[in-house]
Structures are given as C-alpha cells and as structure tokens.
Amino acid sequence: MWATLGLAPAAIAVHYAGGIGDVGDFVLSALALVPLAWLIGEATEHAAHHTGPGIGGFLNATFGNAPELIIALFAVSDGLTEVVRGSLTGSVIGNLLLVLGFSLLFGGDGQLDRPSSRRALAIVALSVCLFLITAAPSWSGDPERHSLAVLTLPVAIVLLVLYSVVTYHSLRRHHAQHVSDEAPFMEAWSLRASLFVLGAATAVTALIAEILVGSIEHFAESAHLSDFFVAAVIVAIVGNAAEHGGAVVVAARGKITLAAEIALASSAQVAVFLIPAVALLSWLIDPLALSFRPVELAALGASTVFTAGLLADGRSSRVKGTLLIAAYVGAAVVFFVAGDR
Asked: Helix 191-222 vs helix 241-252: angle between axes, to the nearest 10 degrees?
C-alpha cells in the first residue's frame, strides 16, 4: 500500500500533461484514491491511540469530508447546483448505509457506543426536518429562485450552531471517558505525526477527487446515466473514499467502535456542518438554495430510521452490515429510476 501511494502524483502529472483523456483520468484517479483512503485510515487509528475512538472518529470525519467541501464549491462555481445537492445528500446516505454497512460486515460482532450512535442519528433526523423548510417550497416553481437561497441562510446558521454545541459536548464526553487502548507491543505514531499525515493525505485526496469529478460527467454520459444519479451515487462514493477506506481498515482490525464512529460521525458532520457550510460559502460564488428533491429527503429519512432500528441494541454483526449494504443498493436503484428533476 505504501508503494501504491505513487499513483496519486502519477494521476496529477498525467492529468495536467493531458495524455490519456477523461476516461483514463477517471480510472487512474479512482485507483489513486484507494491507497490515500488507506493512509487516512492508518493515521486515524494511530491518532485514536492518543485521543480515544470518539475523537478519532471525529478527526477522520473532519479530514475525510474536506475533499467533499472542495468538490462542492467547484461544482457551485460551474453552476452544477443539482450535482452539489445530490452529492451532499448522497454522502449522508452513503455513510449511514454503505460505509457503516461495510464496517459492520468486516468488523463482525462487537459493542457499539450507543449514546454516541443515538446522538449522531438524532442529528441527521433533525437536519432532515430543517431541510424541509427550504426544500418543500422548491417543489413548485423555480427551485433555483433567489428567495429560496435567502431562506437557506437561517437554516444553515441553525445547523452550524447545532454542530458547534453537539461537537463541544461530544468531545468533552469522549475526553472524560478515554482510556488509552494502545497495545504494549504496538508503537503508535505521535499525535503530531498522525495529524500531519492526515492533513497531507487529505490535501492530496482533494486534488485527486477534483480530477476525478472533472472527468466523471463524460464517463457517465457514455454510460447513459443521469446527472442526479452520478452526483448522489458516484460523486458521493468518490468524495467518501476516505471514510470508506478508513472505516473498513480499522473495522477489519477489530476496532468496530472506532469504525462505527467514523461512519456515523461523518454522516452527522455532512448533515449539520458540510451542507450548511457549502450553502454559506456559496454566497461568495453563486448563492445555493438547499432545494432538495422529495426523493432525496425520503431516502435520507428512511436511511436514518432503518439504521437507528438496526443499532437500537448497541451491538454490531455481519448480518446488520449486509442489511445496510442491501439498503444502500436499494437507495441507489431509486436514484437511478428517479433521473433528473
């Protein structure tokens, strides 16, 4: 895996040299994201030895969502508003069902942090209710009208305040409960080294993700896929590469609590931080209204309820992981059938 990290600079060099075209850029960039996701997972696990699984999951969600923020702002500048909204809701659903599903599948039986899981799912559920404030009026008339962008501002501010309050209390709780889980035979990286690797890997991941998204529309066009499906499924999966890789790596090593924290913390962070942050920052480029489609909010709400039901007993299992993955496949099929607005 260390050797394959060379795919990232190769993908960047080949892209700017313009030698292999959009399809080649897509394939090479997708391959380059795999070792980068592994590296972020590796650094997160080492950081968690110093911080505990709760804060470790928060760190992975923070660094893992940075590429999605960059991708979204680039899409806003290109006027791809449906792609932005679809990729953001698809990201929340992907973390709740696909990332968490693979984590439970690879992690097997184990005990989850029930208070933390309930908090993350409650945050996502509350965000769905707040999204209705701006989404419902968009179901008739122009979904891009300026009045909806203005209505988005107070919703985004409330979500960011909620994120700040919940994050503060969550980190205090995890700090108070933390007992180092470092095995005596394992030499963990220092916290400073872990954070440096996380930052560097995230920066390179952002560059690779930008290249991939720039070529993904041509790839999707040749496959006869709608822009909405591309955004809600393909772009969302690409943007979540860090969470996918990081969660699965630590789950396979038996740290199912940390893996679940990565998936759930990331889904909650996208809902109450990334989405409102994109909405507010878009005013520097072109105001974005959170005019989500009914199919998006229905899928998001159903995913939250389904995940909450499976995790109600606070235990993980491979069967639950399989059910979550199956639910994601069902959501992807719904997005494929829905097509563009």
From this structure: 120
Both tokens of residue 40?
A: 């972020």
Helix axes 21-51, 7-17, angle to 10 degrees: 150
Residue 44 carries which side chain, given as an amino acid letter? T
CB 275 within 8 A of CB 130: no
Residue with tokens 């992807």: 332
CB-based burial label for 74 (10 Å; 0-12, 13-18, 19+)? middle
Distance between CA 76 and CA 128 in Å, rounded?
22
| Euclidean distance between CA atoms 278 and 15, whole angstroms | 27
Calpha distance 47→36 (Å, rounded): 16
Taking 3-state DSSP, the helix, strand and coil percentages for the chain, each rounded to the nearest 5, stand at: 80, 0, 15
**Token representation of residue 49:** 């030895």
Rg (CA), the chain: 19
Distance between CA atoms of residues 258 and 113, nearest Å: 9
Domain that holds residue 256: 3-178+187-338
Confidence of residue 242 (pLDDT cuts 50, 70, 90): low
**Confidence band for 173, pLDDT divided at 50, 70 and 90:** low
| pTM of the predicted model as reported, rounded to 2 decimal places | 0.82
Here the tokens at position 161 are 């305040």
**How far is CA 48 from each of CA 44, 189, 263, rounded to the nearest angstrom?**
6, 10, 15
14's tokens: 């080949």
Domain count across the chain: 1
Query: Which secondary-structure segment (H or E) carries 111?
Result: strand 110-111
d(Cα 208, Cα 33) in Å, to the nearest integer? 7
Task: Give the pLDDT confidence of 262-286 residue by residue, as tens digits.
Answer: 888 889 989 999 999 999 999 999 9
Give the pLDDT confidence of 178-202 residue by residue, as tens digits. 444 444 444 678 888 988 988 888 8
Return phi, psi of residue 18, to 5°.
70, 40
What backbone phi and psi angles, to 5 degrees, belong to 315?
-115, 150
Say how far apart CA 93 and CA 169 lie, in whole Å. 25
Measured over the CA atoms of residue 239, residue 306, residue 332 and residue 256, the dihedral's sign is positive
